Amino acid sequence: MVPIPSMKSLTTASHDNYGFHLGAELYLHRFMSTASMRKIEMVDLKAQYRKIKPEIDRTIQEVVDSAAFIGGKPIQDFADELEAYLDIERVVPCANGTDALQISMMALGLQPGDEVICPSFTYFATVEVIALLKLTPVFIDVNPETFNVEANEIEKAITPKTKAIVPVHLYGQSANMEEIMAVANRHNIPVIEDNAQAIGGDFVFSDGKKKKTGTIGLIGCTSFFPSKNLGCYGDGGAMMTNDDALGERLKMIANHGQRVRYYHDLVGVNSRLDTIQAAVLRVKLKHLDEYIAARRSAAGYYDKAFAGHPNIKTPFRAKYANHVFHQYTLIVSEKRNELADHLKANDIPAMIYYPVACDQQKAFEGKGRNAGTLEHTRWLSERVISLPMHTELDEEQLEHITKTVLSFYT
Predict the structure, then answer these.
(1) Is 168 helix (H, G, I), strand (E, B) or coil?
(2) pLDDT tens for residues 118-142?
(3) Apex CA 240: angle with CA 390 and CA 59, to 5°?
(4) Cβ contacts of residue 262 below 8 Å, gap of 6+?
(5) What is the topology classification, in CATH, of domain 288-408?
(6) Which CATH number is correct for 48-285, 3.40.640.10, 3.40.50.12280, 3.50.30.30, 3.40.50.300?
(7) Which end of the chain is more exposed for a tag (fewer CB within 10 A), N or C?
C-alpha cells in the first residue's frame, strides 16, 4: 500500500481575523483590483461558446432545418470521427456516461451477485449502475498521489465472483493501465475504463507505444456532459471498443435490443445521443487537443504558483500518461472547508470532489464490500479541493485565484 503523504508540515496559520475585519482600505483595494476582471467561473462555457459561435450556430441550424432530431446523419459522422481520433474500431454513442457504464455491464452478461471491482473515491455514477444491475461493488482504495486505483489493490480484491474491473481516470489523470491490464489478463477479467474525465489523454506503455485512454480496456466509457473536456450542450455519452462483435451488442442494447427495427434480440434500454448534441460534438472534437493544451497551460500556472508550499500539494503527473486536467485538484491541510469559504468570499468558485466516498453513501448501506480500510480514500475526502479549470482562464484570473489561495496560508 502506498503510504499517505505526511501532512505534519501543513501547519495552518491563524485565521482569527479571516473575513471579518477587512479595513476600508483593504476592501477598496480588493474591489478596484477585481472590478475590471472577467467573472471567474468553475467552467466558463459561455466564453468557450463565443469563440466557436459561428461553427456551432451553423451546425445547429442545419439540424433544425433537416428536422432529423433523432438518428440524424451527424450522429454516425461523429462516431466515425471519434473512432479516427481515438484510433479505435467502434464508438457507440448513447445518452450519457452513466448509461454507457450500465450498457457495458449488460453487454458483458454480468449477473446479479457478480462482483465488480471499483474505487470508492469516484463520482457516484460509477458504482450506481453496479447496484442498479444487482451486482456487488467491491470498493478498493486509491493511490493518495494519483487518486487512482492500482494493480496490486485490484489483485488483492479478486475472488471467484469477480467478473469486471472498473478503473476510473480521475480528474484527467490516467490510472496505470499497463499494470492493471496485466492483472486483468492474468485472471481473465474484462476491464471497463471509466474515461468520463480523461478523454483525449495519452497513455504511454513501457515499450513507448501510445494509446488513448478509454481504448485500452475491453470497453471504454465516456460522458459528454457540458463541463467535460469534450462536452455537448446537453447530455451525451459513448462506449468504445476494438471488439466489433461486442460493439454491435453495445449498439443493440442501447437501442431497445434491436438490430432491425421491431425485431428485438435482447432486452435493452433506450439510450441515444440526439442529433443536435452530435452536431455540437463534431465541432468541439476538432478543438479537443487545443482545449487540453489550454487546460495544461492553466495547470502549469497553478503549479508554479504553489510550488514548494508546505500547506499545498499540487496534482501528480504520471510519467506513463499526460494529465488532461478535467479538474485541477489540490491536497491541502485540514482547513480545506475554510479555504473554500475564503475563495467564495473572494468571488472564486471551488468544488470538493468528493467529500463522501461511495462506500459511505447512505444508498450503499449494507451493500457492497470494502477490500481493506480505504484509508487513503478517507484521507483524501477530507483534504481535496478543486480550483477553477477550463479553456478560457486568463492570466489575470489565474493570478487572482492563486494569490487568494496563498493569502489564506499567510
Answers:
(1) strand
(2) 999 999 999 999 999 999 999 999 9
(3) 55
(4) none
(5) Aspartate Aminotransferase, domain 1 (3.90.1150)
(6) 3.40.640.10
(7) C
